[in-house]
């Protein structure tokens, strides 16, 4: 098995790391769970409630991630039925699957690509399709505004609402620092640019930081890869998104 003896640090949120960690173990490796981002419901739900009350007036609902699907639908469906005329769209296989598991059959999503640029290329998001339409975007607190700005430029009415919040969880930095200094780590997996920043902020003043930055980093998007390079990581492997693609990149790297 190609990952035998390899210890891979997985920085995903705790409740989203299981699939990748299990894959690493199946390939003979050890997954070191070190979440640098936590996901939780928003503390102030007034914006979500106001949106929920006027959901019928929108033509299209876009969910930026599986987290947005889970938290938005949990809030909305506990208070009202989903409008039958409101179509749903998202990006990424996990988000599309989450929508289908909630009963949505005609999910609009790109077949390839995992970012806003891929969504903008869809027929439903081209200029002529957006003109005069009303779009609601469910997302986390913050995030990119590319899709929102694109829709507004093409005369769509757009509302954005934070369905969940991100935070940096408490972390046992001492244990991971000890393992890095003793050479017992083999790779880092980052699945967001924010995660790269949080990780570096935790370790930047520690003597182990140079050891950390010498490890190969696996990043499933060019923006994440760029963030890692900007923070001084010397070997960055950019791969496709999703557990299977990340695992395949790990296997290719350590097999060679």
How would you characterize this protein structure?
The chain contains 12 helices and 10 strands. Helix 1 (18-26) packs parallel to helix 12, helix 3 runs parallel beside helix 4 (93-101) and helix 9 (193-203) packs parallel to helix 11 (222-230). The protein is an alpha/beta fold.
Short account of what is shown:
The protein has 256 residues and is of the alpha/beta class. The protein has helices at 18-26, 46-53, 66-77, 93-101, 116-120, 127-130, 146-153, 173-181, 193-203, 209-213, 222-230, 243-255, and strands at residues 7-10, 30-33, 38-41, 60-63, 87-90, 134-140, 157-167, 187-189, 216-219, 235-238.
What percentage of amino acids are in beta strands? 15-25%
The ordered string of helix (H) and strand (E) elements is EHEEHEHEHHHEHEHEHHEHEH
Average pLDDT rating: 93
Question: Widest sheet: strand order?
Answer: 2-1-8-9-10
Major sheet description: 5 strands, parallel
Task: Give the quaternary arrangement of the chains.
Answer: single chain
* Unreliable sequence segments: none
Q: List the total number of helices.
A: 12
Name the overall outline. Answer: elongated
